[in-house]
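2024-03-11 09:14:02 DEBUG pipeline.ingest accepted 1 chain
2024-03-11 09:14:02 DEBUG pipeline.ingest length=168
2024-03-11 09:14:03 DEBUG pipeline.predict start
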Amino acid sequence: MLLTEIKNSANIIIEKKLSVTFLRLLLLSLLIIWTIGFLQPALLTQNNFLSHYFLTKIYSRVCHQESSKSIIIANESMLVCARCAGIYLGALIAGILILFHSIPELKVKVFTIAVLPLLLDVCITFLGVYRYSQTVAFLTGLVLGSIVYLFLLSELENLFSNKIHKKE
């Protein structure tokens, strides 16, 4: 009887670990694809008009794509602005770093601290106090993207964890 309970508990733990690892790998794979997509102009050696047009349309749904605010790599503008690039790359970096580690407990205070520099930069730039800086926009996006990714991953893992516990 005790051996059966131990075996069942071990199976539940293994199932949870596998589902968490699968979820993390899936999200990381999607982030890699998304990142390669907005870096496409700099990554391709030949100008492929059709893929560039298609990807520009996709990324225009999530970014204003102002060329003056986009980072230029190899004489080609990325398909998102510096702030959006920071957000996506921050999420990607967080996804890689947390892949096989536990997520630290995050409170709303951490999210607030991460979003404030970005909001402050947007407001101060909008008011004309200082000129737009790609570096500041990228860095504030990087911080926010990593924290948002960790919050999202934590919530998804809790959702899957609750479903596994209901199986018990």
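2024-03-11 09:14:41 DEBUG pipeline.report The first strand starts at residue 70 and ends at 73.
2024-03-11 09:14:41 DEBUG pipeline.predict end
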